[in-house]
Amino acid sequence: MTIVGALVLALGQVGDPRLRAPLLKSLALGLATSAALWIGLGYALLHTSFFAIGWLDTTIGALGGIAVFALTIVLFPAFVAAFLGLFLDAVAAAVDARHYPHNPAPLARSLAGDIGTGVRVLVLALALNLAVLPLYLIPGLNIALFLAVNGFLLAYEYASLCLARRLPPGAVKAAWRRHRGQAWQAGAVFAGLSLVPLVNLAVPVIAVAASVHLVESWLRVGTETGVRG
Asked: What whole-number distance in Å separates Cα of residue 99 and Cα of residue 110?
């Protein structure tokens, strides 16, 4: 299945009432995390004396506050992605019910494992975006970096969790390596959609639904060990 085909199917289900609760919960948690990060780092910058020169420290604090605000905006898609992982089963189940009703029940996953995946994504998102933060100030390059970095994070989060519904842990890693090219491209599309006002509110659900369709297509061609071909 192409990325466009998966997106078309996902967009066709955006109005499904079964998707509202997980979307609202993940958005609320993502906003809360972004606000906490902005307030926490902003407070630290404003109350840290870097040079013991009043006007210079004030200037650095103000510029740092702006940079932190920009960072929280950049990280918001990754925050929402990490939290939606906790509610992914509800979204994926709705997609299965509509498009793949004859599929077997998904494999059981532990809540601790899902939380662990979400924490890894959050830490990786913060580390990668902080590493390239100065480059976000370069027009043109900043958009490309945003799509590449956050596209990878979204792809890793959603593809891994959707694969884990159908494959054992060892096979998930192998499948991710085999299909990470298409997954990363899809993640970049999700990241791009997150920049579009209003559309970005539905992106988490669109991304999960599209990822379910992509993973299903990978499994149906019979390339993964132990699944239907």
From this structure: 25
Residue with tokens 């059981």: 108
Instruction: Please give the tally of structural domains in the chain.
Output: 1
- Model pTM greater than 0.90? no
pLDDT digits (tens, 9 = 90+) for 157-170: 889 889 999 999 88
CA 51 from centroid of its chain's CA atoms: 38
CA angle 70, 27, 167 (to 5 degrees): 110
Neighbours of 135 (CB within 10 A): 13
Residue 225 is assigned to a structural domain of this protein: no
39 within some domain: no
pLDDT in tens, 34-58: 888 778 877 776 666 666 665 666 6
What is residue 198's DSSP assignment?
T
Show the domain range for 147: 3-29+75-220
Q: Which of 175, 177, 168, 82 is nearest to 123 (CA)?
A: 82
CA distances from 164 to 106, 173, 192 (A): 9, 9, 25
CB-count burial class (<10 Å; 0-12, 13-18, 19+) for 224 = buried
**Cβ-count burial 48-77 (b if 16+ within 10 Å, e if not):** eeeeeeeeebeebbeebbebbebbbebbbb
Instruction: Look up residue 102 and give its two tokens.
Output: 């004859």
DSSP-based three-state secondary structure for 166: coil
Give the 3-state secondary structure of residue 59.
helix
